[in-house]
Amino acid sequence: MSIKDLFQTADWKKEKHVPVIESPESTAKGVLTQVKVSVGKQIPHPNTTEHHIEWIEVYFLAQGAKFPICLGRGEFSSHGAWAQGPNTSGIYTEPQLSLQFKTDKPGTVSAVGYCNIHGLWENSKELKVTE
Ligand SMILES: [Fe+2]
User: Fold this and answer.
1) pLDDT tens digit string along 9-29?
2) How far is the CA of 3 from the centre of ligand 1 (A)?
3) 46 C-alpha to center of ligand 1: Å?
4) For the domain that residue 123 is a member of, what is the CATH number?
């Protein structure tokens, strides 16, 4: 067994756990590139004290590189729990992360999301870079 065996993936339009990466097909050197990652865009994922998305991490692997760079991480820590018990606060953080980054190299943007019940889900999207 390897940790890579723990990552599941699927078509995000059919499987609610798969992180949806919204980023351009291509960017230019020196230009800030906007990346938005969310879980449940097409099919909403539950957001309750018992069942929710806890975090999303975003990585970039430059073309030809061996090691990825972690671009950012979002922690979603409010899922309805309160002094009166589970699902009593009415306050729920949505699993959505936005970041901007610059790259002078093309590569792959990858995202991992963690559901407290259903584990780790990943998705990837290519990014081209023009001069
Ligand atoms: Fe789940």
Assistant:
1) 998 889 999 999 999 999 999
2) 19
3) 7
4) 2.60.40.730
